[in-house]
UniProtKB/TrEMBL annotation:
Name of protein: acid phosphatase
E.C. number: 3.1.3.2
Enzyme class: hydrolase
Pfam families: His_Phos_2
Keywords: Disulfide bond, Glycoprotein, Hydrolase, Signal
Keyword check for RNA-binding: no
């Protein structure tokens, strides 16, 4: 058994450390990446569905609810290693080997788990070189990197919890889905109501809540309930459909991913115009709904609409051809930092090649562009912006 564990560990290490082989003709000039935080403890809603509440409370009394676990910290560090390998000097060279404030912008939602994920990722990305070492011990291995976070009530990354219009649309989506795609889960609803005391017909999003509870439990070393084991395939399908409710209407997609898309298009347009653009690598330490929303507004083709795992990352990368000067945009997806390699995806309208012509990308996505100020107006959020 030990040899198997060691072999698995080696395979994961090799997979997470696979070198990048850049295309010699293509120079990366811009990258926006959105990641999901690492493994976390359950949140209050998930805990209410558990039959192991006391065990979970005992296991999480130090970190608290919805907080990054030690496994989550490791996952976040692996995320930083991936960023270093792909975007650092050994990869596409978008980032220097030392922290430079004009190269990177880091934003996190105002949640402990996403902030800690950002910090752990940066620790892996920027182990300090001699010129940035600030002391003995810790000063030789850790370089502090700043990030931006705004109150949850004003953050466009938290559109699903602070935007009144989005909540109205979600209520419509739930009502429709209960009478459509969730009809197939009537038998499952009866079982989970008996086991949890909650009526999932009233709120199909509870399927995703329950699925996330099981993920959290497993990451903490607890098994899932016996009653749930034979139902996992069905629960997983119901959770996937619940996740899709966040993107049911085009307006929901625009509210969820339009601001990041708008910022990407603005930066990319400036680069195409020959303007000086700083902070060409921008990272958003956020949530699964942020990954999904950006994939939706960029019209990414995916064969499998699965729930983003802890440590998942979606990236928009812009390249310039050294031969022709042509600009292209490439979508990439990392399913789980440390356990998978990045995959090139395709945009709708650019099925023949992962690299999509910049003009075509711009034209295909313009309907979803949303300025930050417009987001606040639509969502009726008061801000000083």
């Amino acid at each position: 058994m030990l040899w198997y564990v060691l072999l698995l560990t080696l395979q994961v290490h090799l997979m997470s450390g696979s070198p990048v082989s850049p295309d010699p003709d293509r120079e990366m000039v811009l990258a926006f990446v959105v990641n999901r935080h690492g493994e976390r403890t359950p949140d209050a809603d998930e805990l209410s569905l558990s039959d192991q509440q006391e065990k979970l409370k005992n296991l999480t009394h130090i970190e608290g609810l919805e907080a990054l676990t030690n496994t989550g910290k490791q996952r976040s560090f692996r995320l930083g290693e991936f960023i270093k390998q792909r975007y650092g000097i050994e990869g596409y060279g978008l980032l220097s080997s030392i922290y430079r404030q004009d190269e990177i912008a880091l934003r996190s939602t105002d949640k402990n788990r996403t902030q800690m994920t950002a910090l752990m990722a940066m620790a892996a990305l920027y182990p300090p070189k001699v010129e940035q070492q600030w002391g003995e011990g810790l000063g030789k291995i850790w370089q502090p990197v700043p990030y931006t976070a705004v109150p949850l009530s004003q953050d466009y990354l938290r559109y699903y919890s602070n935007c009144k219009r989005f909540k109205e649309l979600m209520a419509m989506a739930k009502e429709e889905s209960v009478h459509q795609e969730f009809v197939q889960f009537r038998d499952l609803v009866t079982i989970v109501k008996k086991e949890t005391g909650r009526n999932f017909t009233e709120d199909p999003l509870l399927f995703e809540t329950l699925f996330d509870l099981f993920r959290s439990q497993v990451s903490l070393g607890l098994d899932i309930p016996e009653w749930a084991k034979p139902l996992l395939p069905k629960l997983g399908e119901a959770a996937r459909l619940a996740y899709r409710l966040y993107f049911r209407y085009d307006e929901m997609k625009r509210l969820g991913g339009g601001v990041i898309l708008n910022d990407f298009v603005k930066a990319a347009s400036d680069i195409v115009a020959g303007k000086q653009v700083q902070k060409r690598f921008r990272m958003y330490s956020a949530h699964d709904f942020n990954i999904g929303a950006l994939m939706e507004v960029t019209k990414v083709l995916r064969h499998e609409q699965s729930l983003p795992e802890y440590g998942a990352l979606f990236g928009l990368e812009m390249y310039r051809s050294k031969c022709t000067g042509e600009f292209t945009v490439l979508p990439i997806y990392l399913a789980k930092a440390g356990e998978s390699t990045a995959q090139n995806l395709h945009f709708t309208g650019c099925e023949a090649n992962s690299h999509c012509d910049w003009s075509r990308f711009q034209n295909n996505t313009k309907e979803y562009l949303l300025s930050e100020r417009e987001f606040y107006n639509i969502c009726n959020i008061r801000t000083e912006l």
